[in-house]
């Protein structure tokens, strides 16, 4: 090891920080009188859209009516009862083959009213990269799976056995470059969440 590197490591080893206590947990996380209204409000504020349906048939029709679905050349669906895929999911072996997917329809585990996010994990998602490569994303969740806040969400996640999961809220966006908002820079350009009353 070089002398300079050794000197740096030695000085770092001499520097000791005092232990810092973790902050106390929030005693009363926010609870909403109307979780659905809050979820809709935040989701729309971040650029997503909420569609509420009564059953699978109405859900199927609502998805088919979406302009992004009608205009799509290639649809990938993990909800075969609601929308058919352009091809069989097990025929796709290379993630690069998903680069031209227009719409991905996927099940979400639950939504969070506090931030308009949907938790998606991979037991039902064969190619999780499709959540990020697709131009447009449609997530389907059951109406009973709507939590107030992230405290409730993390408590629920603690019981889910899955190697991958993520919160998705609104279309991808960034304003880092010249403070100009760009939609779809790092993922989907649109997000529709379908809340099914089942």
Mean pLDDT equals 88
Compressed to H and E, one letter per element, the order equals HHEHHEEEEHEEHEEEE
CATH fold title: Rossmann fold
The total tally of domains equals 1
Which characteristics define this entry?
25% helix; alpha/beta; 6 helices; Rossmann fold; 198 residues; four-stranded mixed sheet
Topology, pairings included?
Blueprint (H helix, E strand, L loop, with lengths): L2 H12 L20 H11 L3 E5 L2 H10 L1 H4 L4 E3 L25 E5 L2 E3 L4 E5 L8 H4 L2 E7 L3 E2 L2 H8 L7 E4 L4 E2 L7 E2 L6 E7 L2
Parallel strand pairs: 1-11, 2-3, 3-6, 4-7, 6-11
Antiparallel strand pairs: 4-5, 5-8, 9-10
Please provide a written account of the structure:
It is a single chain. This protein has a single domain, classed as 3-Layer(aba) Sandwich (Rossmann fold). Helix content is 25%, strand content 23%. It has 6 helices and 11 strands. It has helices spanning 3-14, 35-45, 56-65, 67-70, 130-133, 150-157; strands at residues 49-53, 75-77, 103-107, 110-112, 117-121, 136-142, 146-147, 165-168, 173-174, 182-183, 190-196. A 5-stranded parallel beta sheet has the order 1-11-6-3-2. Strands 7-4-5-8 form a 4-stranded mixed beta sheet. The protein is globular and about 65 Å long. The N and C termini lie far apart (63 Å). 28% of the residues are buried. The model has no long low-confidence stretch (mean pLDDT 88).
């Amino acid at each position: 090891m070089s002398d300079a590197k050794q000197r740096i490591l030695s000085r770092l080893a001499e520097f000791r920080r005092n232990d810092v206590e973790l902050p106390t947990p929030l005693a009363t996380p926010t609870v909403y009188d109307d979780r659905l209204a809050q979820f809709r409000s935040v989701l729309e504020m971040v650029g997503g859209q909420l569609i509420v349906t009564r059953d699978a048939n109405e859900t199927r029709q609502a998805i088919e009516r979406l302009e992004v679905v009608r205009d799509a050349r290639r649809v990938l669906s993990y909800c075969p009862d609601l929308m058919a895929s352009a091809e069989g999911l097990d025929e796709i072996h290379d993630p690069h083959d998903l680069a031209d997917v227009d719409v991905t329809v996927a099940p979400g585990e639950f939504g969070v009213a506090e931030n308009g996010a949907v938790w998606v994990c991979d037991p039902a998602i064969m190619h999780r990269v499709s959540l990020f490569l697709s131009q447009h994303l449609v997530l389907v969740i059951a109406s009973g799976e709507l939590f107030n806040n992230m405290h409730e969400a993390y408590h629920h996640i603690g019981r889910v056995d899955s190697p991958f999961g993520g919160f998705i809220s609104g279309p991808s966006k960034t304003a880092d470059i010249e403070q100009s908002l760009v939609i779809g820079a790092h993922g989907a350009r649109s997000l529709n969440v379908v809340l099914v009353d089942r």
